[in-house]
User: Which sequence fits this backbone?
C-alpha cells in the first residue's frame, strides 16, 4: 500500500497554488452540490430514508457473520466461488492465483476502490499482465500514472485541456477539444479491450445475502462489458457491503445516486449472480468474489463501527471546504476527504497519518449530507483524542493544551484571560479591525488577515442576558 499521508501539509501547499486544480475542483464541486440539493429537495421522504438506511446498516453490522455466511452459501449455490482475504496481501495473492490458473494475459477493470486499497494494479502489472481501466475517470488517471482523487470521480482534478493532452499523447492523431469527442475516442480505444480480456474485475456496491448477487452502479456501462465479456469475472469488495435482500437494495439505490452525483438513479444498475448458465446468451465461465477484511473487523463493536456504514457516495468530500480547496491527492491514500480522514488512520495507523484527523474545521457539513448519518466530526474528534493519549501529537501542542486546560478549569482565571486577550487583540486590530501578523498564528496571517474581536466577549453578553 502506497501511503504518503505524512506529506499532507506539503501536498496541500502545492495544491493550493495550482490554478488548474482550482478550476477543475470549482466546476465539479458546484455541480455535485447543487444537483444533490435539488434532487434531495424534491424527495420529501429523503430524511426518513436516511434513518432507515442507517438502521438497516447497523442491523447488518451487528449480525455480519450471519449475513456473510448466507451470502457465501448463496454464491456457491449459484455456481460461484467466495474467497476470504484477511488483508491486502492475501487479497492480491488470491486474485493473482486465479489469473495464473486461467492463463490470463489481458485484464479489464471496472472502478473498484477496494482494488485501489489493496494495490491490485501494481501487483498485476508486476507479474506481466496487461491491465486496462475501463471507467473513463480511471482510464484517464491510468494514462496520467496518478491515483484517483475522488472515490466516484477519479479524474475530478483534471481539466478538459489536460485530458485532451493525455489522449493525444496516448492515442496519437489530432487533439480532441470537446468532451463528446474525448468520450468517443475513449470508447473506441476501449472497445477492443473488452473482447481481448481474459479476466474482468469489478467492485461491488452491494452484495445480496438472499441471492448471492453482486451489484454495481455505473453511468457508463463499462462495468457490464467488463464482467460479461471476459472468461472470468472477479468481484472485489469489503465485507461490510452486505445487504440482506434485494428489496433492501432498493432503499440504498434511492439515496446513493442522489447523494453522489445528484441523479435520481444511476444509468446502469447491474446484478451478477454466478457464472454463465447453459441457457444464458453471455456471461463469464467463472465467477469469483474476493471478500476483503483488511482492518474492517477491528472496527466492529467499537467506537468506529459507524464508519462501516459508508456506501462510498462521496457526498462528504463534495461538501467539504478542505477537500474543495486541495483535492484528493493531498490526503495521500485511496480514501480522501472526511471519510478518508477517518478510514486511513484506522487502516494504516495513526502515527503515519497524523495530519488527516486534524485536516478538518469540524463544521459538520459532511455529517449533514451523509446518506447513512455517519457522525464524521465525532469520529475525527475521537481520533484526535487517541493521538493525544498515545503521545503522537507534538510536544509543543501538548503543552499548549495543558496550559489551556489549567486556565479553563479555573473560571476566575479564564474570565480574566478572556477579557485580557480581547483587549489585546482589539488593540492590535487598530482602526482597520484587521490583524496582519500575530505570534504563533503565522499559518493564518501569512496568507490572510485575522479579524480583530468586536464588541463584548461571549461571557459578558451571557452574563448581561442572564440578569433578571
Assistant:
Amino acid at each position: 500500500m502506497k501511503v504518503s499521508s505524512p506529506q499532507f501539509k506539503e501536498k496541500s501547499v502545492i495544491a493550493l497554488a495550482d490554478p488548474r486544480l482550482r478550476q477543475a475542483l470549482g466546476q465539479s464541486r458546484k455541480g455535485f452540490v447543487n444537483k444533490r440539493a435539488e434532487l434531495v429537495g424534491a424527495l420529501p421522504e429523503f430524511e426518513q430514508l436516511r434513518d432507515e438506511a442507517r438502521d438497516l446498516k447497523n442491523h447488518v453490522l451487528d449480525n455480519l457473520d450471519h449475513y456473510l455466511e448466507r451470502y457465501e452459501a448463496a454464491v456457491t449455490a449459484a455456481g460461484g466461488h467466495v474467497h476470504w482475504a484477511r488483508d491486502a496481501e492475501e487479497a492480491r495473492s488470491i486474485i493473482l492465483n486465479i489469473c495464473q490458473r486461467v492463463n490470463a494475459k489481458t485484464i479489464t477493470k471496472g472502478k473498484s476502490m477496494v482494488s485501489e486499497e489493496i494495490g491490485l494494479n501494481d501487483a498485476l502489472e508486476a507479474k506481466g499482465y496487461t491491465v486496462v481501466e475501463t471507467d473513463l475517470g480511471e482510464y484517464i488517471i491510468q494514462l496520467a500514472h496518478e491515483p484517483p482523487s475522488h472515490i466516484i470521480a477519479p479524474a475530478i482534478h483534471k481539466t478538459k485541456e489536460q485530458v485532451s493532452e493525455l489522449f493525444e499523447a496516448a492515442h496519437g492523431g489530432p487533439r480532441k477539444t470537446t468532451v463528446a469527442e474525448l468520450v468517443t475516442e475513449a470508447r473506441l480505444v476501449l472497445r477492443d479491450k473488452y473482447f481481448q480480456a481474459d479476466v474482468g474485475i469489478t467492485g461491488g456496491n452491494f452484495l445480496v445475502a438472499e441471492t448471492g448477487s453482486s451489484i454495481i452502479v455505473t453511468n457508463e456501462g463499462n462495468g457490464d462489458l467488463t464482467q460479461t465479456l471476459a472468461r472470468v469475472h472477479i468481484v472485489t469488495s469489503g465485507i461490510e457491503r452486505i445487504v440482506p435482500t434485494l428489496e433492501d437494495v432498493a432503499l440504498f439505490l434511492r439515496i446513493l445516486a442522489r447523494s453522489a452525483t445528484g441523479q435520481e438513479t444511476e444509468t446502469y444498475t447491474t446484478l451478477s449472480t454466478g457464472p454463465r448458465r447453459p441457457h444464458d446468451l453471455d456471461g463469464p465461465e467463472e465467477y469469483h468474489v474476493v471478500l476483503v477484511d483488511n482492518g474492517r473487523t477491528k472496527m466492529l463493536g467499537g467506537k468506529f463501527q459507524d464508519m462501516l456504514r459508508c456506501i462510498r457516495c462521496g457526498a462528504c468530500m463534495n461538501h467539504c471546504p478542505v477537500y474543495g480547496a486541495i483535492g484528493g491527492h493531498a490526503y495521500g491514500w485511496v480514501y480522501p476527504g472526511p471519510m478518508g480522514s477517518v478510514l486511513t488512520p484506522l487502516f494504516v495507523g495513526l502515527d503515519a497519518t497524523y495530519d488527516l484527523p486534524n485536516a478538518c474545521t469540524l463544521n459538520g457539513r459532511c455529517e449533514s449530507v451523509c446518506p447513512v448519518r455517519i457522525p464524521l466530526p465525532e469520529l475525527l474528534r475521537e481520533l484526535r483524542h487517541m493521538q493525544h493519549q498515545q503521545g503522537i501529537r507534538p510536544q509543543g501542542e501538548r503543552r499548549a493544551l495543558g496550559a489551556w486546560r489549567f486556565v479553563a478549569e479555573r473560571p476566575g482565571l479564564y474570565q480574566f484571560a478572556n477579557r485580557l486577550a480581547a483587549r489585546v487583540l482589539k488593540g492590535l486590530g487598530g482602526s482597520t479591525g484587521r490583524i496582519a501578523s500575530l505570534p504563533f498564528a503565522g499559518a493564518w496571517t501569512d496568507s490572510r488577515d485575522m479579524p480583530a474581536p468586536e464588541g463584548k466577549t461571549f461571557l459578558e453578553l451571557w452574563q448581561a442576558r442572564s440578569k433578571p
Observations:
- Residues 410-466 form one domain.
- Residues 345 and 353 are 6 Å apart (CA to CA).
- The radius of gyration is 25 Å.
- The first helix runs from residue 8 to 16.
